Every structure is written in C-alpha cells, then in structure tokens.
Amino acid sequence: MIELLTPAEMAEADRLTIAAGTPGIELMETAGRAVADVVARSPLGTRIAIACGPGNNGGDGFVAARILGGRGYRVQLGLLGGLDRLKGDAALAAAAWRGEVVSLAELDFHGSGVIVDALFGAGLDREIGGEAARAIETINRSGARIVAVDLPSGIQGETGQVLGVAVRATETVTFFRAKPGHVLMPGRVHVGRLTVADIGIRETVLERIAPKAALNRPEAWLPSLPVLKVDGHKYDRGHAVVVSGGMTQTGAARLAAHAALRSGAGLVTLASPPDALAVNAAHLTAVMLKRMDGADGLAALLSDRRLNAVGLGPGLGAIEVARPLVEAALASPAAVVLDADGLSAFKAEPQQLFARIAGRPAPVVMTPHDGEFARLFPDLAALPGKLDRARQAAARSGAVVLLKGADTTVADPSGRAMIADNAPPYLATAGSGDTLAGIILGLVAEGMPAFEAAGAAVWLHGEAGAVLGRGLIAEDLADALPRVFTRLFV
Ligand SMILES: NC(=O)C1=CN([C@@H]2O[C@H](COP(=O)(O)OP(=O)(O)OC[C@H]3O[C@@H](n4cnc5c(N)ncnc54)[C@H](O)[C@@H]3O)[C@@H](O)[C@H]2O)[C@@H](O)CC1
Ligand SMILES: Nc1ncnc2c1ncn2[C@@H]1O[C@H](COP(=O)(O)OP(=O)(O)O)[C@@H](O)[C@H]1O
Ligand SMILES: [K+]
Q1: Is 405 labeled as ligand-binding?
Q2: Ligand closest to the CA atom of residue 409
Q3: What is the mean pLDDT of residues 288-292?
Q4: pTM
C-alpha cells in the first residue's frame, strides 16, 4: 500500500520522528540534499536560482543552495521577507548559508537554467498574492527547468487546489510519502515528475498516524482479488445481472455486461424490457438474455439468490422508468452497482436513495461523474477537495462512492479512500464509464469486497486505456482486460 499523507499527517510524522530522537534540522538537511541531488541532474555550470519562503520550505531551499554551491554550481538565492523572520530549523539552515541573500524581486529567473521553488510547501494556508504571486508568474514564464520543494508553491497539499496562483514545476521532490495534492487535479499537472525522497522518517510512524488514503495501485486491492481455484466452476464466480434500457438505448448496458464478464463474473445476464429483446438478442453471445417486465420483473429475477450482483443505470432511461427499477434492485439481496440514469433518478430526493441503501446487507457502489454527483450531493459538490467530496458522500449515502475523472477517487463510508493517477485522457470517450461500471460489477459478483473492487476496476480501466492508446473506443476496453490481468501477475 502506498499511503498518501495529508499535510497534517505529514507534520505528525515529522513530530513523531523528532520526538524519537532525530533533530528537525537533520530532517531538513536530508530533505535539502534530496532536492540538491535532483537539481544536480543539470550539468555543472548551470545557473540556479533558488526562491525561498519564510517557513521550513524555505529552509530546505537554503540547505539545497549550500550543497549545490559546494558542488560548484552558480547559485543565487532570493528570500521572501527578511532573514529575521526565519525561525527554528529554517533559521539554522539560513545561518549555514554563506552566500548572498537577495530579495525575491532581485532573483534573475530569466538568466537561470534551473529554478528551485522553495517558497511554500505544507504550510501554505491562504491565497498567494503580492510579491510571491508576481515571482510565481515570472517563474512560470521563465522557460527554465523548475524543481519544486515538497509541493509546487500555491498547491494545497490536501486538495490539489491552486490557492491564488501556483508554480508549474517540471519536477517535484517530496518527502517520505506523496500527499493527496500531488495526485489530485489540478495539483498533479503542477507537480510534473514526482520524486518521493527518504529523509529518515521510519515506516513505523504510519502505525500511529493510520492514514486512510492511498494511491490506487495494485498493492491497495490485490490481496482482495479473488483467487481462482484450479477445480473452480463458473458458478463459483458469481452471476451478474445488468439491466438494459428500452429499444433505442441498449448499447450502454451491453457494454457494461460485456465488461462484467471480462472482469470476473462467471455468468452475466442482461435483463431486457420486452421491446428491446430483439435488438439485444442480435448483439449478444456469451452474455445471456432474459426478458424483464418492469420493476416487478426485475424483483422476480433477483429473487434467485444465485444472481448475486446487479448493475443498472447506463442507458436505463427517464426517471419514471429508472427509479422503480433501482428501487427493486436495492430491495433485493444482491450487491448493486449504480451509475448514470440510476443515480439521476433520485436527483429530487437523494435521501430516498440513501434510506434504501442504509441497512441493506449487500454493498452498493455508486459511480457518478461530476454532474451526477452534483445532482445527489448538491451541497458537497462545491467542496474544494475531491477526496473530501467522495468521503462525505460515502458517509452520507452508506455506499462506496467512486467519483470519476482524471483523478478518480474511491471512498467508503468509513473514510478509506484511493486516488488513481494512471488513467490516460483518451478514456474520456462515450461509453467508457459504462464499461467501468461493468468491470466493478464483475469483480463484485466474483466476490471481491466493494471498496477494493471499485479501486481495482478503476486501475484496470486505466491500464486498459494505456495498453490500447489513443484511438481507443469503449468497445475495446473490456477486450484489453486479459492483457492487463496478465501483466498484473507477471
Ligand atoms: N517539519 C520538518 O521537520 C520538516 C519540514 N520540511 C519542510 O517544511 C515544509 C513545511 O514548513 P512550514 O510548516 O514552515 O510551512 P511552509 O514553509 O510551507 O510555509 C509556512 C510559511 O509561509 C507563510 N505563508 C503561508 N501561506 C502563505 C501565503 N499564501 N502567502 C504568504 N505567506 C504564506 C506562513 O505564514 C509561514 O511563515 C515542508 O513543506 C517541507 O518542505 C522538510 O524540511 C522536512 C522536515
Ligand atoms: N481526462 C481524463 N483522464 C482520464 N480519464 C478520464 C478523463 N476524463 C474522463 N475519464 C474517465 O472516463 C470515464 C468516463 O465516464 P462517463 O463520464 O460516465 O462517460 P460515459 O457515460 O460516456 O460512459 C470515467 O471512467 C472517467 O474517470
Ligand atoms: K515549494
């Protein structure tokens, strides 16, 4: 598991390490050296401008300046505010710097090959304005290689949001663990290439801190991926149901059904309204087809407990049609994956949806994009942090919430969360989300716990996109899954 630490959790990691006997200045020395090592990939003779802020982020900049100067680089250091404002470890680091200190405005950004951004890191707590904002705008226009210390200045470590203005770094060097703001948008774009440096903080501090967010990597969910038995049977792998829309909107459900079969369900049945049976029949092969007469028909189908997971929403139709179907699914003992129209059906009364989720024995996974999210959680949609949005929505609804985008975030009601950074932008194509819902459904049907299944599906979907490359369409994604699974196990 690759934990993501909020700035507050990172401060706690520092505190625990210092309390265990490592002086703060030693951590700062190691941090500054890690920055210097990254900067030193540029050849000797490169002019380096180091912009230092008034806190410990600036302290790291002073250390890097001293080390780079010692290695023969031409270093110019500029400070925001006076030297007398520096405190603690930053003051110690500044005292060890023998070179000149100019003001930020005097730094020659345009004449430098590398700019080190040590203005603000974890301590950024308000919008940047004035001299610092002007410096950041100049840094961004300079054309130099920009190495940010800990976080690009202006990016909030917890949310990835820009506070006023933010450095667009070529590379960022952070310490111990990445922060949510390194992977959440728009932070991820400002970070550039990320290096996570070991500065001597022991892994054991994580037991005390118990961080609840992680990067969505296989380590986060692979232990929960069902292991197939040598003598296994298709009936051991679950039977998923996908609900089709009416005659003119059947494709989305078929995409989901196909993906559910690819991702793991032993059997998949498409439940189809009578008017859509012929069109569905013409397009299905391994996926089975069953006639479904409205919500009562779906309830009857799901009364067979072997059908252990149901997905609905893609192409499901208008509220009058969709809502009773979702209610029937939620009244059944099956796990439920709710997407698209299945979510929008409750926009007038989201509490009705949450009330039906509460207390049901099997899990519910909701997969909104931002628009669908705003319909169900209008008050949460304005929160600045995607992690916070997903977590609060999960806590309120009782469902696992998967909030889509380039930084898809999955959260469960207890606050556990994973953030993905592997999705290529060509996943933004019609039907891609329907496929994602199907991948989750197949994994849940196969017996994977809902939170892990949602995380795994997001990762698999992203990798499938990366394997296929530009030009992919939603139909291709599920068919790329065998290749992605193969890579997972070699
Ligand atoms: N605590 C430690 O032991 C370690 C800390 N490290 C560094 O310390 C950094 C955190 O240091 P700090 O907590 O001192 O915080 P920062 O140095 O990130 O910033 C805090 C300072 O900036 C000011 N400030 C915040 N937002 C501002 C704004 N919008 N405009 C103008 N001024 C603003 C604050 O008043 C304060 O003076 C980390 O990002 C990391 O770079 C590393 O040296 C590793 C060890
Ligand atoms: N810029 C992007 N980078 C990576 N993935 C993206 C990006 N934009 C959208 N996606 C992904 O593409 C999928 C789109 O889903 P959705 O909006 O439901 O579309 P549809 O309803 O057409 O299937 C989601 O998995 C989302 O996370
Ligand atoms: K910085």
Answers
A1: yes
A2: 2
A3: 98
A4: 0.96
